[in-house]
Amino acid sequence: MQKRRDRVTPALFVITVLLALAVAGIIHLAHGGEVIGPFAVADQVSSTTKRANTPYVCWDGNGSGSLTRCPDPRGEDGMRWVLPGYDEAARRGECARDDTGAGDQFVECSMSWRGSRVYLHYAYWSEWQTGQKKYAAIGSTPSVAQRPDGGMSLSWRPRRLPTPHGEATWVTAEMVEGHGWSVAAYAGDGEVAREALEEFGEIRDLREWRGLPR
């Protein structure tokens, strides 16, 4: 009797495993995939569900249950997110990237705009005060205003001074106090520089800084 039980137990185990594999394969095929084993199927389904059911989408495209769990924007993709005008400037002109400091990031775009040569300087300063000091060197006192998102915007009115851009000697800039992202515009005329900054220098609402609701 004992020998018979020993023979039956392995047989039942084999049958159970085969049934589990068959069920897993059916589930996976129902999701449009190939049969690759029960554990891989379970992982794939749960991962997909997690991404689809999260209430927020982070700036990097990943789903999240809370915006506080989304990372801070970084890199060129982060720049495109925080500074939406960058994409349009890149489309209209030529842009060059220059990562000169530890954690700092700079992209400068040159374009012909409204009959003038305009330069847009997009930057991320790992220490936001560094950017503030650079723009303070323009020589104008920044205008401080409260944004709808509660942040304080710092904007430097156009000022004429020597620049690396030849005749584009008028410079204006803006950033949000406490945050490292900034935009500066260079042009041969102060009003053109101001208008270019307004056109291509949007800084995203702080409430959307890390992502958006679905």
**Silhouette:** globular
- Largest beta sheet: what is the strand line-up? 3-4-5-9-8-7-6
Work out the strand percent. Answer: 25-35%
> What is the CA–CA distance across the termini?
63 Å
Order of helices and strands: HHEEHHEEEHEEEEHE
Annotation field: number of helices? 6
- Main β-sheet, in a few words? 7 strands, antiparallel
Low-confidence runs: 1-8, 10-50
**Overall number of strands:** 10
User: Helix amount, in percent?
Assistant: 25-40%
The secondary-structure class comes to alpha+beta
Rg (CA only)? 28 Å
**Average predicted confidence as pLDDT:** 82
Question: Could you outline the blueprint of secondary structure elements for this entry?
Answer:
Layout: H1 2-30, H2 38-53, E1 56-58, E2 63-64, H3 75-82, H4 85-92, E3 94-98, E4 105-113, E5 116-124, H5 128-136, E6 143-146, E7 152-160, E8 170-176, E9 181-187, H6 190-200, E10 211-213
Helix pairs in contact: 1-2
Architecture overview:
By secondary structure, the chain is α+β, with helices and mostly antiparallel strands. It contains 6 helices and 10 strands. It has a 7-stranded antiparallel β-sheet with strand order 3-4-5-9-8-7-6, with helices on both faces. α1 packs parallel to α2 (38-53). The termini are far apart.
Short recap of the structure:
With 214 residues, the chain is an alpha+beta fold. It has six helices and ten strands.
Keywords:
214 residues, seven-stranded antiparallel sheet, 6 helices, 27% strand, alpha+beta, three-stranded antiparallel sheet, disordered N terminus, single chain
